[in-house]
Amino acid sequence: SQTIHQWPATLVQPVGSPLSLECTVEGTSNPNLYWYRQAAGRGLQLLFYSVGIGQISSEVPQNLSASRPQDRQFILSSKKLLLSDSGFYLCAWRPPMNEKLFFGSGTQLSVL
Amino acid sequence: QKEVEQNSGPLSVPEGAIASLNCTYSDRGSQSFFWYRQYSGKSPELIMSIYSNGDKEDGRFTAQLNKASQYVSLLIRDSQPSDSATYLCAVNTGFQKLVFGTGTRLLVSP
User: Fold this and answer.
1) Shortest Cα distance from A44 to chain B (angstroms)?
2) Cα–Cα distance measured from residue B23 to residue B6, given in angstroms and rounded to the nearest whole number
3) Chain A residues near residue B43 by CB distance under 8 angstroms
4) Terminal CA-to-CA distance of chain B, rounded, Å?
5) Per-residue pLDDT tens over the stretch A23-32
6) What is the pLDDT of residues B59-99, one digit of tens each?
7) How far, in Å, are A33, A98, B48, B83, B98 from residue A28 at the CA level?
8) Is residue A61 very low, low, confident or very high in pLDDT (cuts 50, 70, 90)?
9) Is the Cβ–Cβ distance between A45 and A35 less than 8 Å?
10) Which of A2, A6, A34 has the alpha carbon at shortest distance from A22?
11) Is B44 within 8 Å of chain A by CB?
């Protein structure tokens, strides 16, 4: 069966520090991969999605970037975090030829 | 205009009642619709999908779709306190991505 792993679960970082969040999917090939952010009391905002290795589409211009170095690995990064980057970050995947989206357990990021 | 709109709630219902959650969307070409349940501090969990006009039932859950009115709803029968959560409506707008509403918070009182 397919599973998605996302870590860490909680992260507290100072303003201006770098960020790296990682997500991996098991049990499938060539999944579509997504990074969403959910700010406190707000909806899910799509940040990036990828349909294949090295293919990244950005939805929101900001100081975040994403990379997909392997088929089932998706990384969210920042060189310098801002206070406004705080939120609940969710990695998600979708099987090929399937429209259903499945989420990882999320990372609660607090930038102080 | 927001692409997917939901009443933020909270919607309060007594245990055993029917909870009715509503969602409207702006893209008339949307073909796929989903309901997710999200408990506080947890990630969203897919509970229903619907693709055709009409009703789709799964246990205590019924999804309803009316493409002409651009309206999707979720009915929860025999509501339980464990159903208390935020329910997110999501619409596939094409281009490999889902757009989510801000969610409706449901409170089921014992």
Assistant:
1) 6
2) 5
3) 90, 103-106
4) 37
5) 999 999 999 9
6) 999 999 999 999 999 999 999 999 999 999 999 977 678 89
7) 12, 12, 22, 31, 20
8) low
9) no
10) A6
11) yes
